[in-house]
Every structure is written in C-alpha cells, then in structure tokens.
Design a protein that fits this description.
With 222 residues, the chain is an alpha+beta fold. It has one domain: Gcn5-related N-acetyltransferase (GNAT) (Aminopeptidase), CATH 3.40.630.30. The chain contains 6 helices and 9 strands; from the N terminus they run αββαααβββαβαβββ. The protein has a 9-stranded mixed beta sheet, sandwiched between helices. Helix 5 packs across helix 6. The protein is globular, with a radius of gyration of 17 Å. The two termini are 27 Å apart. Bound molecules: coenzyme A (COA).
C-alpha cells in the first residue's frame, strides 16, 4: 500500500484486505507432475489438515526434520500444528502437495510484520525430494506473495543445505546470502525471479474459478 494514498482510499484498501483474510483461496489448487511422472495435487493448507500434517511430520527422516527445524523435533506441538494449518492467506500462507490424501510436501511464507518481506520455509518427504516439488512450492508461493505486496523472500538455512540453496538458486538469479556461523541468511526478490510462475514443470490449474488467469508476475518469467 502506498503512503501517498488518500486516507479514504487507504481505509478502503485496508477493508478489502481484511475481507480477503482467512478466506480459502480455491483458485490456488493445481495438479502437478513430478520429475518421475507422479501425479500430485497442490493446494493451500487449511485448518482441517492438522491430522495430515502430524502424519506427514512423523514420516520425515530425522535429517529432514533437523534441516527444517534446526533441532531434533520428532513431534509437532499442538501450538505448532495450529500455527502451520491456520493461516490468513494474506500475511501467512501455506501450500501442501498431496499424493492422494497424504501430504508429501509443505511450503509456507510468513510476512515479517509491517514489512514487504516474508520468510519462506519448506519440507518435502524424503522419497519425493529432488523431483521438483520444492521448486514448485516456491514458485506458487511467490505468485501469491506478489499479489499480497510482498517484495522479498528471506530464509535461514544451514550452510551445507545444498538442497534448499539449489531450489533458491534455480528460482532466482538474484539470491544474496550472508553467512552467520553455520547458517546462511538468504534473500531474493519475489518478482523478476527466473522461474516464478513457470508451468513448464507439468503443473496445470485444476479449473477452479479464476485458476486460468495469468499470474501477475508472469511477465517476469524468463
Ligand atoms: C530443501 C527441499 C525442500 C528441496 O525440495 P526438493 O523438492 O527436493 O527440491 P526440487 O526437486 O524442487 O529441486 C529444485 C532444484 O534445486 C536443486 N536441488 C535440489 N536438491 C538438491 C541437492 N540435494 N543438491 C543440489 N541441488 C539440489 C536442483 O538443481 C533442482 O533443480 P532441477 O529440478 O532443475 O534439477 C527438500 O530437499 C527438503 O525437504 N529438505 C529437508 C528440509 C529442508 O532442508 N528444508 C529447508 C529449511 S529452510
């Protein structure tokens, strides 16, 4: 929202933004085909996904859990499950990838309050890693985030996490990285990235209302 807006226009924008909050965005459901030919589904996370998320977490290797949470973390607390599944679809957004009814990947962004930056985080079931799911999650999060005025994605990852860095570097030619002890603090633009919104990885909208529209960052694809 620009600062030079008339107060009434600013109020109208705020009301419109509030009205969009917590409304499940049914137009953000997609089918995707992995690098190995598996047909999966991607959709926004919702509160009723608590059990699926707990089951997904239990099936992750301890290495993947450590990569995602930076600690030995075999069980998600009730608070974490609520935080991860109850998102407002504006400042906090999560996509899940499903194989039938089970989660095989989760990606999310959380806006850093009062900024146009959001932190992203991902985890993909071990048997489904390196098949394009992490990158697809990032691409779709970027499209949604751009619509919500988010300009920059940030992430904190372990310095030797080649999988995560690989995803960021394929997505964007403008990744900046700062090393802090054994961590890397990464940031890159949401719009203008090389892969944002690319449907060449076999993704198709499911045909829900509005799903065929051109992504707002489409012009930035290259
Ligand atoms: C990191 C993670 C989310 C990546 O998801 P993924 O589905 O395996 O990644 P993708 O298959 O989409 O990979 C996208 C690109 O990244 C690169 N990449 C992926 N894994 C890589 C690896 N282990 N080493 C080097 N590059 C890798 C590839 O170049 C790939 O590009 P390509 O498809 O053109 O070959 C996944 O490995 C994971 O869940 N790891 C454990 C949790 C974690 O580390 N989370 C990050 C916390 S911030």
């Amino acid at each position: 929202m620009s600062d030079d807006q008339h107060p009434k226009a600013r109020e109208a924008t705020a009301l419109r933004d509030d009205a969009r909050r917590w409304v499940y965005p049914a137009d953000q459901e997609f089918e995707l085909v992995t690098g190995t030919g598996a047909h999966l589904r991607m959709r926004p996370i919702r509160p009723a996904d608590a059990r699926r998320l707990v089951d997904f977490h239990a099936k992750l290797s301890s290495r993947s859990v450590y990569r995602r949470y930076f600690s030995f973390h075999p069980v998600l607390s009730d608070e974490e499950v609520a935080h991860l599944t109850q998102v407002d679809y504006v400042d906090r957004f999560g996509f899940v990838v499903l194989d039938d009814d089970r989660f095989v990947g989760v990606g999310r962004y959380d806006r850093i309050p009062e900024t146009d930056e959001a932190e992203v985080a991902f985890v993909v079931l071990d048997d489904f890693q390196q098949q394009g799911i992490g990158l697809s999650l990032l691409e779709h999060l970027a499209i949604v985030a751009a619509r919500q005025g988010i300009v920059t994605f940030t992430a904190e990852t372990q310095a030797d996490n080649r999988g995560m860095m690989g995803v960021f570097e394929v997505f964007s030619d403008h990744v900046s990285a700062r090393y802090e002890d054994e961590f890397i603090l990464v940031s890159f633009p949401v719009v203008g990235s090389s892969r944002s919104g690319d449907q060449s990885r076999g993704e198709q909208p499911r045909g829900a209302p509005g799903s065929g529209e051109t992504p707002p960052v489409g012009g930035a694809l290259c």
